[in-house]
Amino acid sequence: RGGEDGDASRDVQQAEGAEGEASAPAEDGSSSPRLGAWGDDLWQVCLAVQEADAELLSWAKSKGAQPMDVFSLREDEETGVRGVYTKRALEADSIVCEVPRKLALEVTTAKTKCPVDGLDQEFWNKCDWWGKLACLLLAELQKGDSSPLKAYLDALPEAIPTPLHWTPEQLEMLQYRPLVDEVDKQREVWHGLYDRYCSASSARPLPTREAFVHAIECVRSRTFSGPYEGSNWETRIKQYGLVLVLAVGYVLGGFGEAYQAFNGALVVFLTILFRDLLVQRNPRSIRYVLCPVLDMFNHRSDVESDPSYEYFRNTFTLTLSKPVAENQEVCINYGKRGNDELMQYYGFVVPDNRHDSYTLSGFLDKAADVMRAEFSQEGGEGLAAKRLEMLSGTDTDVVVVRPKRLGLTGRALQALRVLVSTEEELRGRAALLDFGTKVSDANEALALRLMRRVCERELEEVLPTTKEEDEKALANLSGMGQDLSQVEVKMQALRFRIQKKRVLETYIESQV
Q1: pLDDT tens-digit series, residues 252-303
Q2: CA 497 → CA 157, 182, 336, 453, 464, distances in Å?
Q3: Any residues with CB less than 8 A from the CB of 472 and at least 6 apart, and which?
Q4: In the structure, what pLDDT confidence band is assigned to residue 239 with cuts at 50, 70 and 90?
């Protein structure tokens, strides 16, 4: 997954030759002699991926998914990223792909009986949506060849190159403590969930820790969500039919009068109807779906896509707002996600991502250092201490910067106004909320200048390399004859930190 905006997690990248040329198979189908034994293994992996993808499309078509004949899966000739391509032009606002609901794995926010045999109900109830979906996926994987979803399971990636698998030294290459901390927390939570899963499951054999974590990774990188409507129409018809049968049996069996049966049936009908209406109107009613084929499309940030549930067709569909030309890749939009989330769960970043941000930790100390070094300290240390005292106990020591002129939260702007306020401006103001609106033009300008200098210092003094140095290192890596996985980790880290530095640079430029 990834596409034009980032590397795909299911892709097999081309190996580089000794001189930096991309090695390719010979015309007769054998691997190039330059690749050697390692290249032969890689080519076998590529063939296995292609066969699994072709089998998936064939299986989905046989189960009612459409239009599978329109799609092909192949690597982009320039980037090597594997994606879904269309064999004919696709019109805008038309259904691009439709998959029967029966082929998908699905959980909702509604309280349900645990569908996994041998798994404790209490454990199921306490699981987040992604934990529940991972349990469903593991249950299918443990069925092996008997799983009705075997073709889909075979097409899932064997590994997803996210920072979860990096060593502490590799994580430090990100030069970004907030993501390192999130990955550490992620690892702790996921491994803790596995330990509880082992205690809650009576099934044997238990999956390995690695298999459990990989199932969660597949879920977090391939799931889409949407509103949950309650029962589908097929279920409702069955429920109504059962009620009618019971009502007729009630009368024919001599258990009561016809009007009693009618009243009882009417009450049941209305209960089912109003229950589903309440579920539909509840904004917290959400379904999370792992759907074959629909989860194979790569991401592009300039695409508007709508994966949704078709109630009367009982299918999941994909609609694109723009047309797609013949032989072009079909991409979807994974949503308004910053590069922190994309890197953590998908393993790629989006260049110039307008949803990206930079988290400044220890902001108050950094701002105070700038104030002491570069700003005139009216009122001396006593006033500076008073400002910091007003900010103590607030959540302003961590500030999120976005790549635009108004790239600060209201909370951050309030803290900045406090930090540059004069003694007169502080008079009569005792709390952070008292700085919720602009104090004065001079105060506002000084606050934004302080923020700009904090960001400039972050680039100049805190981060160990510049964006230009990172870009040069990234350009040089493709020709290095190192282990491919190690090179990929370095390239991922470089791409990520380049984008983080661009966030700061874009914000700084917007304030000039």
Answers
A1: 887 777 877 777 777 766 665 655 555 454 556 789 999 999 999 999 888 8
A2: 26, 16, 19, 20, 11
A3: none
A4: low
- The SS3 call for residue 289 is strand
Q: Which residues pair with 105 in a beta bridge?
A: 290
Q: 171: burial class by Cβ within 10 Å (0-12, 13-18, 19+)?
A: buried
H or E, element range at 287: strand 286-290
Average of pLDDT values for 98-116? 93
Structure-token pair, residue 196: 């509880």
DSSP 34-55: TTHHHHHHHHHHHHHHHHHHHH
**pLDDT, greater one: 338 or 247:** 338
Residue 317 bridge partners (DSSP): 98, 308
- CA distance to 10, 65, 166, 181, 441, per residue, from 340 (Å): 19, 34, 15, 11, 35
Beta strand spans in 76-186 (E) = 82-86, 95-100, 105-108
Residue 261, classed as helix, strand or coil, is helix
Nearest C-alpha neighbor of 158 from the set 215, 231, 117: 215
- pLDDT, one tens digit per residue, over 423-441 is 889 888 888 889 999 999 9
For the chain, percent helix, then strand, then coil, each to nearest 5? Answer: 50, 10, 35
CA 462 to CA 453: how far, in whole Å?
A: 13
- 370-380: average pLDDT: 76
Compute the distance between CA of residue 69 and CA of residue 51 in angstroms, rounded to an integer.
16
Return the pLDDT at 26: 35
Whole-angstrom Cα distance, residue 107 to residue 115? Answer: 10
Assign 41 a pLDDT band (cuts: 50, 70, 90): low
* Segment 371-377 mean pLDDT: 80
What contacts 141, CB < 8 A, 6 or more positions away? 147, 153, 207, 211, 215
pTM, rounded to two decimals: 0.80
**Residue for token pair 């996921």:** 190
Is residue 107 within 8 A of residue 128, CB to CB? The reply is no
Instruction: Please check the confidence at residue 362 and state whether its pLDDT lies above 60.
Output: yes
